[in-house]
Design brief:
Helices cover about 80% and strands about 0% of the residues. With about 400 residues, it is mainly alpha-helical. The chain has a single domain (about 10-190, about 205-385), classed as Growth Hormone, Chain: A, CATH 1.20.1250. α13 (about 275-295) runs antiparallel to α16 (about 375-385). The longest helix is centred in the last third of the chain and has 41 residues, at about 335-375. It is globular. The two termini are about 30 Å apart. Residues about 390-398 have low confidence and may be disordered.
């Protein structure tokens, strides 16, 4: 068995690989499903609504986190395996369902898939909080998001090509097989389980959320997520409808975003550890705002690809630094629950962006929707301004 507490490499590889599987599912949701629905003759509004519905499990991550913490005696690894199996079951099931004929069963099994993502995600986060050193949190989050964006890049390009040449059912099959292979690695990782039956978490959680800085992070988390959720749906649809590109072409261009996000995640995490998380996040959000607005200039696929890649780089940094801030504010005694509450709020923001994306396109068009995506960063910058962060060296001592 591999003891990941004795070296950082195995930590980074473990959490990076687990988040890679999440990236594969994100590619399914943000690229494959929207274009699949358009090709099936379903409306923009319906596509956005369906994506909003199947994203609900990641907005209630505190439910999965509560279960994982309550049964802490079983460890985190068990729930990672459970999450991976649920993902595979959901993906293998939608192979046989045509959404234009049986929409509800199609949505139901995708919902199960995302429930699996919820279990895998909160268990991975809780494990990282337990074994990660304070000075490693930026780099650990960097490896997580680098893995996630790498999964998105592979999923967007590979699965889109498979969908075009072999059919969407084969894309779902390959995605499921990839996840099954990934969850085999935790089986050889040594885990030290807590020797307690369960915890009384309510009092501890209430105390944590009474803290002003935790409350500010709870406000910041969803505000950061709206822009990403909106753009991840709008841009693939824009490439299909506005630029008349095929699914394989769309997949290759969309892959630019996660590829640059990998670099942005690593750079952002390392910078936050050396500088401060607040200053790093403030700078990254400002730059992301400017380039989100500049999407109004993307009237060719070349310009779109260039701007989208730049946005990806800074978004990777934004998400990494934000999660490092959330981890730094999390009490390890209720690591899965508290952190999952905060990240659930972040996912509420993404869900909001996903759900309103189709309606914004239909009502305002692509240009104004791009401008609105930038506008949502404004309130986030205001919250960052009022957030007071302890120096990370002081945090380490405490």
């Amino acid at each position: 068995m591999i003891d990941i507490t004795r070296g950082s490499f195995y930590k980074y590889f473990l959490f990076g690989s687990l988040y890679f599987s999440e990236g594969i599912i994100m590619a399914i949701g943000f690229v494959i499903i929207p274009v699949y629905f358009v090709e099936k003759g379903l409306s923009f509004e319906l596509a956005g609504l369906v994506l909003g519905v199947i994203s609900i499990p990641v907005t209630i991550k505190f439910v999965w986190g509560g279960i994982v913490d309550y049964f802490i005696r079983f460890g985190r690894k068990l729930f990672i395996i459970l999450g991976g199996l649920l993902i595979a079951i959901g993906l293998f099931s939608v192979i046989f369902i045509d959404p234009s004929v049986a929409l509800i069963p199609f949505v139901l099994f995708l919902f199960i898939t995302v429930c699996g993502v919820g279990f895998l995600d909160v268990s991975s986060d809780a494990w990282a909080i337990e074994i990660g050193l304070e000075e490693e949190l930026g780099k650990i989050n960097g490896s997580m998001f680098a893995g996630q964006y790498a999964g998105m890049a592979v999923g967007s390009s590979l699965l889109a090509a498979i969908a075009q040449f072999y059919g969407y059912h084969m894309a779902f099959l390959v995605a499921g097989l990839i996840v099954v292979l990934i969850i085999l690695f935790p089986l050889v990782i040594k885990e030290t389980k807590k020797r307690i039956k369960h915890q009384k978490m309510g009092k501890t959680l209430i105390g944590e959320f009474k803290k002003k800085q935790t409350q500010l992070l709870a406000i910041l988390a969803p505000l950061i997520g709206i822009n990403k959720g909106l753009l991840m749906i709008v841009i693939p649809i824009y490439m299909k409808v506005g630029l008349n590109l095929e699914i394989a072409q769309i997949g290759l261009i969309v892959a630019i975003f996660p590829i640059t996000s990998v670099v942005g995640s690593i750079v952002g995490g390392a910078t936050a550890d050396k500088w401060t998380r607040k200053k790093t996040l403030n700078l990254l959000v400002w730059i992301s705002l400017v380039f989100s607005a500049s999407l109004i200039l993307a009237d060719t696929w070349i310009i779109l690809a260039a701007i989208y890649g730049i946005i990806g780089f800074f978004q990777g940094g934004v998400m990494t630094v934000k999660c490092a801030m959330l981890m730094g504010a999390t009490n390890p005694k209720v690591g899965a629950t508290q952190f999952s509450i905060l990240t659930s709020l972040s996912n509420v923001g993404m869900l909001t962006g996903e759900t309103i994306s189709g309606t914004l396109i239909a009502v305002f068009g692509f240009t104004r929707t791009f401008l609105y995506s930038a506008w949502f960063f404004g309130p986030a910058l205001l919250v960052v301004h009022f957030y007071k962060e302890k120096k990370q060296k002081e945090e380490t001592k405490s």
